[in-house]
Design brief:
It is a single chain. The chain is of the alpha+beta class. It folds into 2 domains: 33 residues; 170 residues, Inorganic pyrophosphatase (Inorganic Pyrophosphatase, Alpha-Beta Complex). The protein is 30% helix and 28% strand. The protein has 4 helices and 11 strands, in the order αββββββββββααβα. The strands form 3 sheets. A 5-stranded mixed barrel has the order 1-6-7-10-8. A two-stranded antiparallel ribbon has the order 2-3. β2 and β3 form a beta hairpin. The longest helix has 28 residues.
Length: 220
């Protein structure tokens, strides 16, 4: 049997320990360096457009969502061995949220950021996209305000819409598809559509949610 000098044995052990410590450090660094999608991204860009974090790509039915504690996007877990899948048609548009916004429970909201449908081709999950807000579907979910903004991705020139009126004129039925989907994707869950309004109302709703987020952070 081949034997090794004690010095080499000691050196090998030291290298293994160093490697383990390095791996642990790198793993911890990755965790601490991970972007917090809720807090680290601004709601508005310098040119007054809006940023959206994609949770669910269009055409898919796995319900991923923001974990408000970690700031990460996670597949919603219903039970230890069960993840949420929408038992209806797949999402008709990309779905996500506007960071640094809050639908305050004190004001009748659900305590989450503002939700957004980003119309157009499928967008990869966790991608941050710059959008133009063009409308809003006001709705209640279990008697809480849970309205959905309508937006278009500015990186998609093939879907050139700049207003709610243009959406209605150029893509007739698009809003109706979203309304029908929202009324049915949770089954009989008590969702109520209140109204569908234009980009001015949508922007006002978004600005109020951003103000609510800022107020909450100042109180901490």
């Amino acid at each position: 049997m081949k034997s090794y000098h004690p010095l080499f044995t000691l050196l090998g052990a030291a290298l293994l320990l160093f490697s383990a410590c390095k791996d642990t450090k790198n793993s911890h660094q990755k965790e601490t360096d991970a972007i917090n999608y809720l807090h680290d991204i601004s709601a508005f860009t310098t040119d007054s457009l809006v940023q959206v974090v994609i949770e669910v790509p269009a055409g898919t039915n796995q319900k991923w969502e923001l974990n408000k504690e970690t700031g990460q996007i996670e597949w919603e877990q219903l039970a230890p061995d069960s993840m949420r899948i929408i038992d209806y048609l797949a999402y008709p548009a990309n779905y996500g949220f506007v960071p640094q916004t809050l639908l305050s429970k004190d004001a009748g909201g659900d305590g989450d950021p503002v939700d957004v449908f980003v119309l157009g081709p499928s967008i990869v999950r966790e991608q941050v996209v710059k959008v133009r807000i063009i409308g809003i579907i006001h709705m209640l979910d279990a008697h809480e305000s849970d309205s959905k903004l309508l937006a278009v991705d500015l990186n998609n020139p093939g879907f050139d819409v700049i207003s709610f009126e243009m959406l209605q004129n150029n893509y007739p039925g698009a809003v109706d598809i979203l309304r029908i989907w929202l009324l049915n994707y949770k089954g009989k869950s008590g969702i109520e559509i209140i109204s569908v309004n234009d980009e001015k109302d949508a922007f006002h709703y978004l600005k109020s949610a951003n103000d609510a987020y800022i107020d909450q952070q100042l109180q901490k």
